[in-house]
TrEMBL record:
Residues 1-68 form the DAHP synthase ferredoxin-like domain. It comes from Thermus thermamylovorans. The lineage of its organism: Bacteria, Thermotogati, Deinococcota, Deinococci, Thermales. The keyword Transferase applies. GO terms for biological process: aromatic amino acid family biosynthetic process. It is an enzyme of class 2 (transferase). Its EC number is 2.5.1.54. Keywords: Transferase. SUPFAM superfamilies: Aldolase. Signal peptide: none annotated. This is 3-deoxy-7-phosphoheptulonate synthase.
Length: 344
């Protein structure tokens, strides 16, 4: 349920409401707007008697049942956008951030080169997989801890925060030592133990939509993270599996405005995986931003033809530079701000 405080309520009245929420076994979530203070009481469906109890408390204007099954992600609980801030800028609330880098960390030279030009062309975050979940057990699985160390070195040199994927609850503490944000890939989007573990890690989370997930299921996965006290979640539309075979996956551009109308969380688009071919990445990226996305996560490699994974969809440096040139123009036309390192 959602408790709306009266205009001019006292801090003691607010504290009493929060204490009462905790005493009945619910979890409070405080949201302060310019004129209104809202307190979400997160838990099982409230009884009419419980709602009346809270309506009678001093300072309470109204008590409203939360209609959505995703409670903490809902705009009913927080009616304004969440804005996440990184050392290089923000995402959400009119701020756009681009994460870029290779699909997999293959070597120190490859990763540092990609990080340098990603920053030079305006990316605000470095992506790269140290642990790679692959369809085939015989495919490149990543460099593991060595890959994490290379990403950390790239961050030291460029100042770009790092996002990398974590595959299991047992890996979370290790990856969190090196990464600024933890990525949950499409294959793990409903690995609930992993979602709870990253929720407890205290780092921002990029949650990718599973290839067969509905948007409601996607938000319920986010709720697993939020329910553990971590409100810094970015939702990433990365393409879903449909009957169409022309592209690797089908980018659900419509998911962006739908999610923006349902949740306060930032929404990003991954144009690389649905494209499957580098020549389609830029159009899909621009389509996602035009639909309202708060950021992009893009694959780029100094020598894509030599890449050990996803070679066909990784942008060359010149192509990434062109993407960022067009992103700047589009973001400006949309009245938004592109977050980028100070020295570009």
């Amino acid at each position: 349920m959602l408790i709306v405080m009266r205009h001019g309520h006292t801090e003691e009245e607010l504290s009493q409401v929060i204490r009462e929420i905790e005493q009945v076994g619910y979890r409070p979530h405080l949201s302060r707007g310019v004129e209104t203070t809202l307190v979400g009481a997160i838990g099982r469906g409230p009884t009419p008697e419980l709602m009346e109890h809270f309506r009678a408390l001093p300072g309470v204007a109204e008590v409203i049942p939360i209609s959505k099954p995703w409670k903490l992600a809902s705009l009913e609980v927080q009616p304004f956008p969440t804005v996440l801030e990184f050392p290089t800028g923000k995402t959400g609330g009119g701020h756009v951030l681009v994460a870029a880098g290779p699909c997999g960390v293959e070597s120190r030279e490859q990763t540092l080169k990609a990080a340098r030009y990603a920053k030079a062309h305006g990316a605000g975050m470095l992506r790269g997989g140290a642990f790679k979940p692959r369809t085939s057990p015989y495919a490149f699985q990543g460099l593991g801890v060595e890959g994490l160390k290379i990403l950390a070195e790239a961050r030291r040199e460029t100042g770009l925060p790092v996002v990398t994927e974590v595959l299991s609850p047992e890996q979370v503490a290790l990856v969190a030592e090196y990464a600024d944000a933890l990525q949950i890939g499409a294959r793990n989007a409903q690995n609930f133990a992993l979602l709870q573990a990253v929720g407890e890690a205290g780092k921002p989370v990029l949650l990718k939509r599973g290839m067969s997930m509905t948007l409601e299921e996607f938000l319920m996965s986010a709720e697993y993270i939020l329910s553990r006290g971590n409100m810094r979640v970015i939702l990433v539309e990365r393409g879903i599996r449909t009957f169409e075979r022309a592209t690797r996956f089908t980018l659900d551009v419509a998911a962006v405005p739908v999610l923006k109308s349902w949740t306060h969380l930032p929404v990003w688009v991954d144009p690389s995986h649905p494209a499957g071919r580098r020549e389609w990445v830029i159009p899909l990226a621009l389509a996602g931003l035009a639909a309202g996305a708060d950021g992009l996560i893009v694959e780029t490699h100094p020598e894509p033809e030599k890449a050990l994974s996803d070679a066909a969809q990784q942008l060359q440096e010149e192509e990434f530079a062109e993407l960022m040139r067009r992103v700047r123009s589009l973001v400006g036309a949309l009245g938004k701000a592109l977050s980028a390192p100070a020295a570009v």
